[in-house]
């Protein structure tokens, strides 16, 4: 699908803050046409990684190229193609909404006024409200508008929807899908709230301790883990029970719960048959999967 | 057929797409962990087996279906491509995707395999609970009587 050049190209990216290592040798290519979920526990380096991509931080070692330019050399041309809404959402509180939108839009060579109008209507943003008086949810909506108004090719959202109500959240997801329909766009969403993003992302990057531990398609990731319950129909399960490729196994005398990574289902089913067991196989929802992968890191 | 730029957030639009008399009714569980493209394939296959989708029916275009379900268009494309590769769908350039080659799925064998997979769990639960095969048979017969289908004839008659 993506034969063209990656929009973001990262090689051996390492970042130290004094003695703390925030990123430890990250390699990453990001291709257009994707909605990527950037997942990981607090302090795992998500935001640090993002700040390198948009040129707010410079690497201690390695390189981070965005639109073919090093983080240090990002100029107006590249920055205009990036949209960024972040969790703290610092806005100019003393302006009213309309003033702030005009102020921000003035920085960009193009600004989609039509999109702005539809957006403010659909999200019920009132132009005359003072920015400082907005609720956290309204602020977040405004921050998103300011990140998309100039129609960036690379849209980066750091915890974008945490304060949105369920309806606004659904609208927000629709908005992102609308953006990704256009050629050559990338949306990168960093989030803890997995249920928000799992509907629409097609690619997952998981980070832990400054490293990337998973970088693959969502479907592929979901399909490579299975959760199995084994229930003995007849006699007790043998004391020593081991399964190939099992990540976790929890058992009592008659039942066992097992999580597999890329299991050989046929051989497992044969094993279960020999043990005279009932097998219930479930997929693991992304949220559970996330916990399993994080736990298996230790 | 030319689609207008879909307006934001206006789901009503998608329910009135000119040229599509029917929507695809799919019941997607977004948080089950079963990949969404899998769920689409399974449900389309099931609808074909049940006679709800017929040879020559047109599927909703990728854009419209992804907008309706609020899912990534790549996910819909993936499901459609897999079904195309399987020979279940045919792409007519510039028009859309149509259901073809459903014969294998309409055969009793395919239906039986599908039902057997569903029954497997019930039987093994019965075994675990110590219910006899005779009791199971009785339950099945009663259920059959309860859901006596009068509109679609049984295929083995």
Description:
- Chain A is α/β, with parallel strands linked by helices and 298 residues long.
- Helix content of chain A is 30%, strand content 30%.
- Chain A is built from 10 helices and 14 strands.
- A 6-stranded mixed β-sheet of chain A has the order 6-7-8-3-9-10. A 4-stranded antiparallel β-sheet of chain A has the order 2-1-4-5, covered by helices on one side. Chain A has a 4-stranded antiparallel β-sheet with strand order 12-13-11-14.
- The longest helix of chain A has 15 residues.
- With 157 residues, chain B is mainly alpha-helical.
- Chain B has a two-stranded antiparallel sheet.
- At the A-B interface, helix 4, helix 6, helix 8, strand 14 and helix 10 of A face helix 2, helix 3, helix 4 and helix 6 of B.
Q: State the fourth-level CATH superfamily of the largest domain in chain B.
A: Winged helix-like DNA-binding domain superfamily/Winged helix DNA-binding domain
Q: CATH fold name of the largest domain in chain A, please?
A: Rossmann fold
Order of SSEs of chain A: EEEHEEHEHHHEHEHEEHEEEHEH
Quote the beta fraction of chain B.
5-15%
Domain unit count of chain B: 2
How large a portion of the residues of chain A is in β-strands, by DSSP E?
A: 25-35%
Structural class of chain A: alpha/beta
Order of helices and strands of chain B: HHHHEEHHH
- Biggest interface, and residues per chain? A-B, 38 and 28 residues
Name of the level-1 CATH class of the largest domain in chain A: Alpha Beta
| Overall pLDDT score of chain B | 80
Radius of gyration of chain B: 19 Å
Distance between the termini of chain A: 35 Å
Main CATH class of the largest domain in chain B: Mainly Alpha
Rg of chain A to the nearest angstrom?
A: 23 Å
Largest sheet of chain A: 6 strands, mixed
What is the strand arrangement across the widest sheet of chain B? 1-2
The biggest sheet of chain B amounts to:
2 strands, antiparallel
